[in-house]
Amino acid sequence: MKAFHVRGIVWETDGKRPALPVEATVECESEEGIADALSDAYGWLVSDFVVVEETDGDRTRNANRG
Predict the structure, then answer these.
(1) Fewest Cβ atoms nearer than 10 Å: which of 12, 13, 17, 61?
(2) What residues make up the domain containing 18?
(3) For residue range 12-22, what is the model confidence (pLDDT) as tens digits?
(4) How many domains does the chain have?
């Protein structure tokens, strides 16, 4: 299991205004599972985010993505 720190989270809220984070850290197997992990944790679908850091055990990798 890896931990991913993400920022710039854009939520699909159907016009509602719930209090949701714009950045978070989630644990999942790979980057492909981040949106599902966020949705499971907060109950809303995610349309976009940027991975800024990946932690695997004792190693940390900064992800420069745009």
Answers:
(1) 17
(2) 2-60
(3) 999 999 999 99
(4) 1
